[in-house]
Amino acid sequence: MTNPSLTGSKEILMRVLLVSLLLVSSSVFAEPPTALKTIGIFEEYDEKDGEVVLGASVNVSGAVCMETGLCLAVADEGRFAQVFALENDRITIGQRLYLAETKDKPKRELRDFDLEGLTAMGNILITVGSHSRGRKSCKSPDRSLRIFWGEVTGDLIGTRQPLTDQSQSLEPLFEQFETLEQSFDQPLQKNGLNIEGIAAQGSTIFVGFRAPFTGENSASVQVAEFTLDALENGDFSGAQLHHVAVDGPPGRGIRGMEAVGDEMILLIGDSGVGAGNKAICDQPSPHRVGEFSIHRWTPGQLTAEAVMTLDLPDEDWKAEGILPMGDEGVLIFFDGPPNGAPHFYEFP
Question: What integer best gives the mean pLDDT of the chain?
C-alpha cells in the first residue's frame, strides 16, 4: 500500500494542526470508547522469501503532537517514527522520520530500538527504548538502551536523513537509585526494569516505568525526572525518582504518559508478562493485572488522581500509547491489533 504523502512542508504542518484541532472540538465522540478508522499503515518490518517486506504494526507504543501540529507515532519493532494526521473519526498515516540508522534489513538481522514512548520539547522530538531484557527471549537489553533526541525539520520527513546522530543510554540514571539499579538487566518476569513512558514539561524530562513495581499491598508507580541538559551531558546526579501512589490494584506500572499543562496524564496498566522461552524467565510474572486506567499527576505530588478505568475493546489488547486531546479525553493505541486500533476515550 502506498502511504499518502505527508512530507514536512509548511502547508502540511498547518493542515495537521487544523485537523488536530478539529478532532478536539468534534462532536463525533459522544461516548467512549470510539474506534478511529486508520488510512494507511504504521509500518513494521517482516521477511518473506528472504526479502524485506512491510506490514501493519501490532506494537504501536507511543504518539505525540508537537507544537507545530505535526503528529508522530512509534512502534516497538522499528527504528523510525511515522507522521499521522487526525481528522474527525479517522487517522491518516504518512511517511517515516528515521531516528538514526536507516538501512532496511531482514527481520532476523534487524536490531530495532524497542521504542516505547515519545514526547516533544518545542521542536525537539525525544523517544526512548525500553532499556529492558527481551520479554520472551530474556536477552540482555543492548538493542533497547537508547534515548534519541533531535530537532524535527520538514526536510527530514520522508527521506533517509536521520533525526540525529546522538543518543544516550539511561544506565547512568539507574545508578543513582537503588531500586532502578537492582532491577536493571533483570527479566520482566522477575520485576525487571522496563520503561514505557516519557513526557516533557519545559526543559524537564519525565520517564515512566512499567516495572519495577513497588507496591505489594498498595499501588504505586515510579517516575524519574531529569533535565535536557542532564541528558545531553550524560550527568544524572541531579535526577529525582518519584514514587507515586495510584488507586487500583497493585502490580501495575506506567504504560504511557504525556504532559498537559502543569499535569501529567498517566496510563496505568499491567506491569507483568507471560513466560518466556529461556530458563531465566520460564515462568509468568506473579503480578498480572488486567485493569488499565487513566490518572492525573502533578509532578512533586505523592498521589495521582484517578480519572477513569478503561473499557478495553478486546481483553487480549494492552493499552500502550496515550495522546491527550485537550480537556476532552485521550486517544489510546493498543498493543495487539494492526495499527494500534486507536480509540478515543472521553473524560467523565
Answer: 86
Instruction: Please report, for the domain that includes residue 95, its CATH number.
Output: 2.115.10
Beta-sheet strands, E only, within 17-174: 34-35, 37-39, 43-48, 51-56, 60-65, 71-75, 80-87, 90-98, 115-121, 124-129, 147-151, 167-168
Question: pLDDT value at position 108?
Answer: 57
Range of the domain at 317: 10-343
Place of cell 539507574: 174
CA distance 216 to 73: 33
Domain count, the chain: 1
User: In this predicted structure, which of 73-87, 227-241, 268-282 has the lowest mean pLDDT?
Assistant: 268-282
- CA pair distance 148, 168, nearest whole angstrom: 7
Q: What is the 3-state secondary structure (H, E, C) of 283-331?
A: CCCCCCCCCCEEEEECCCCCEEEEEEECCCCCCCCEEEEEEEECCCEEE
Report the share of the chain in percent with pLDDT over 70: 84
Alpha carbons 66 and 57: distance in angstroms, whole number: 22
pLDDT greater than 60 at residue 12 = no
